[in-house]
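Hey, resending since the last one bounced:
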Amino acid sequence: MIESGGNTRLQILNELYNETGDEAFNQVQCLFVPWSSESNILTSHLIENEIRGDMILIDKAYAVKSLKEEIEIELGKELSRNEFSTLAADRGYKISRKSLTRLNYAIELDQMIPHVLRANISTRKIDEIKKIYQTYSDYCRDKTDRFDLIFMGIMSEHDNEEFNIKDVRTDLDVQLAAEIEVQSNHIFLEIQARIVNSTACQNTSDAYNSLAQQSGVIYPNNTASIPSTKSQESDTGDSHAAASEQHPEHLAENKATSNQQSNISPAHQTALTPEPEGNDDIDLMGLRGRNYEMVCDFARHFVMDHVIHQSDSGLGFIIECPVEAFDFDGSQRQKETVYLKYIVWWFLFGLSEQNTDPKRFHAWNHLELFTLFHHQERGTNALNDRVKQAPEILNLLAIIIQCPVALTDTGFLKLFRLMENIRKIKKHYPDKQIWDYQE
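The structure tokens again:
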């Protein structure tokens, strides 16, 4: 038995000897290594294959599984992933617990997509499939107990060289829609919300803690110490540059940058408290104008200021359709960018309050959005095609309010001041005066 790999070379020698009869191929010099254990032989072969780099992921998964089982037989007990990882490293084969988890999941997938796995699917794709499965499974937990069967069936149907996660998700949405009686598009948006929120916020806590400690910001109560409005307003000339730096297309690269904006000098900190009111601060037209400026500033951060229209009625601004429909096709980065804009648009639409009462319709009945909401032809889906369905309130809170990657402390302060100004209007003026209608 060959101790450290070389079965292919042995096969070649045998074939050459059978073909030529030359004794040079029948006898070769070898190093004798005393037998130690089956697990050491398996480990040596794994190391050899890793060095050569010609082992596909699913074959590696089964080889590692065999090694773990052999060590368990020799020790007479089952091993945890951590224990196995340590013992394998002692034998010269290093493998992390994360890699073990991935390889075990690949073996599970082998019951569904054997051809795809043997086409040498990447580890990134394995992780993506697992994330899709877990997200859909969590979503379906209280809705149906047939999700696993549906998932396995759809994955098996896509076991071919054209395997595409997007196509799998489309079929999942359609079948689940029939199963739980929810529109497939709503399922897609809900799943996308969970995926994007997880992607945007995962693995940021350690970096955030580190930056907060380095900058002297007290964590987790650092949100109580944010620059005052006046200090922010003095820097209005830099607002556009700041928006460019935080363009949502660069969200993935700017996680550290967005966290660094928490680096605020203690000398310039102030409590996040309502501003004192003066007589000049409660003029309705002035408040409307200030709302418009602040909402544009907030939306510009997400490259969404084009949907803001100034209004002489209501809160000083109304929301129009985005220039382009929200399209969730494309790369993961593109999907995250579009989803963030989708969340922001619906947040702004709700903030405007323009659609909460028919008495307010006059303020925006000239917009395309009004036509989509209230005059689209029966049976058409134009509104949904353009802006999708409204996200759940939990997604709005998680992404707009609570995610420091999507909204920095500076952006959160601007939003706070905008909402404070809206409350000031509603505090000092009756609804009919705000929206210019008669009882």
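The chain has three domains: 7-116, 117-182, 218-434.

Sorry for the duplicate.
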